[in-house]
Every structure is written in structure tokens, then in C-alpha cells.
Amino acid sequence: MSNVTRPEHISQAEWDLRIKLAYCYHLVDFFGWTETIFNHISARRPEVEGEYLVNPFGLNYTEITPANLIKVDVNGNKLDDSPYDGNPAGFALHGAIHGAREDVHCVIHTHTNEVSAVAMKEDGFSHDNFYGAQLYGRVGYHTFEGITLFAEEKSRMLASLGDKHVLVLRNHGIAVGEYDIERCMFLLWTVQRAAEIQLAAGAMGGKDVILPEAIGEKCAGLTKMLVDESGFADKWFAAMARKMEAERGACW
């Protein structure tokens, strides 16, 4: 990954995080999951309570660098002298999760066509395809209340999320949260693939093969074990960053 020079006022731990977060933004664009300048990816600042890094609103994801990410607190207040502000539509969602879930250090929000289509369906995500099975027991659902601008919705979003790591924003999109950037991005990819296959299967004739709940539990448990113990997410993230730079050149 990039070895850009670290500014003196930023700690090495935060700089390493900034590099990974900037790569995360570029990867979301590389996979075609962006919504022009909208949506958001946030990461909790290391060694600092109640603060996180997020994209400067108005920039394309490909314009984001480790240096131009902005710092905000859980209420969305900007904490540095960046000429950019954050997107206020993201503060309620990201601030709520970062403020309440100690096990979640990265949150990604998207609404691709496939994910938004599944979010429209009353039954939500199917757990009958390979990727959907890996999400068994990990998905919460939140009723659409309009654009997420208001602090009063935070408690309801957190109740909908519970101890899960995927929050389906009904009639809208998703938010995924994980312990670090690599795990969060790998989870997002899993959710996206589950949605794509679910839509493809739904467009075909014939009955689906329904998986037993025990298989879903097994798949979700095995996926967690492989991510936690075998470094699946770290290896995948690094490989995708190499692939992206091989095709596009250096990110910044």
C-alpha cells in the first residue's frame, strides 16, 4: 500500500488508519458501489474517544486521500480546519453507531441498486444463497423515517441494529459495521454479493432450494472464524488494493 509521507501533527497509528480508510473509499468506487458524492465511510480515531474520520463532502471517492479526511465527533461537529464539511445526512447514523458500539470501529453506508432493491422487500435478505447464508443472524432492519438527519432517530436505529453488524435501512440501503476497516469492507462485499445473487435468482423461473437454519448458523459461524483466525478480510483487502492499483495506478 501507499507510503505517502505522514504529517508531523498526525500520529503513526492515525496515519495508518487514514491510509486504509482512503483505500476503502477508492475500493468502493473501484467496485462501482458509489452514489456520486453521497454516502459515507467512517473509522474511529485510534486512541481518541468519541471521534471518527469521514469523507470531505463534495469530493468524489477517488479524490479522497489520507490527508484530506476530516475529523468529527459523534455529534458531527468538525474538529479540524479543513475547508470541507461532512455530509450531515451521515452524522446521525455514523455518530450513533460509533457512540454506542465499542466493537464497531468502521461503518460503511451504501445503496447500490441490488442492496436498495432488497431493502425494498418485506422479507429482506434471503439466507438461501452462499453469501446470504454467511449473514445468518447478523442482519437488523430499520423502518424508513426519511433522510437520516435528526438525532431523535439515533436510539431507534441502534435498537434496530442491536448486536448485529448489518443494518438494512428499509426502502433505502444498508450500513455495515465491523471491528476494523478490512473486516467492514469484506462484510460489505459479502452483503453486496448476497443481494446480487438474490436478485438474479428472483428473476429466474423455478423454485429456490431453501437452506435449513442450522446451515445458516454454521455458515455464519465459519465465516466469523475464518475472518478472525485466518485473516481472510486482511488478505482480501490487501489483494483488492493491489488489483485496483494495478489497473488504475497509484491512488494519490
UniProtKB/TrEMBL annotation:
Coiled coil: none annotated. One of its GO terms (cellular component) is cytoskeleton. Residues 19-199 form the Class II aldolase/adducin N-terminal domain. It comes from the Bacteria. One of its GO terms (biological process) is monosaccharide metabolic process. InterPro entries: Aldolase-II_Adducin_sf (IPR051017), Aldolase_II/adducin_N (IPR001303), Aldolase_II/adducin_N_sf (IPR036409). Pfam families: Aldolase_II (PF00596). One of its GO terms (molecular function) is actin filament binding. Belongs to the aldolase class II family. PANTHER family: ADDUCIN (PTHR10672), PROTEIN HU-LI TAI SHAO (PTHR10672:SF3). This is Class II aldolase/adducin family protein.
